[in-house]
Every structure is written in structure tokens, then in C-alpha cells.
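Team,

Forwarding the record for the chain on the shared tracking sheet. I've put the sequence and predicted structure together so nobody has to dig through attachments.
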Amino acid sequence: MKDRLPSCLPEDDFRRRLPRFQQDALRANLAIVGRVREIAERAGITPAQVAPEWVVAQGEHLIPIPGTKTPKYLVDNAGAGTWS
């Protein structure tokens, strides 16, 4: 968790000011991250592939719209939906 503290971010990084990166919220969010990693590991997929599956499971009225900025993320997005 130490490497995920806001103090590890550059001084001018906007995330330092976001509530979700403050101590209590960060702790709660990292607990969720840990659970997502466990699910992904059991399923043999990446944590990024868990997210769109979760969105789809919320109901037919929701559709995940993944974005990407690297080829690796594109591969993750393409692999989502291949497990259940």
C-alpha cells in the first residue's frame, strides 16, 4: 500500500487533491482493489477484465464503454467478456 499513497505522487499531480486518494477513502478503495485482484486471479484474467463484466452484471440497461491508451489495455479490453 505504501507505493499507492498520495505522497508518492508528484507534487503537481491533481490526484493529490481528489477525495478518493485521501487516507480513509484510499484505504477503502484499496480493499476493493484487493478483492478485484482475487477475483481476477481465480478466473485467470486481469483485474481490468473484471470491471466490464461487473458493469454488465448490473443489468441490461448498462453497457461498459472501455477506453484505452496503450496496446496492453486494448488487449485487456478485447479479453473482457470471455469468462463467466
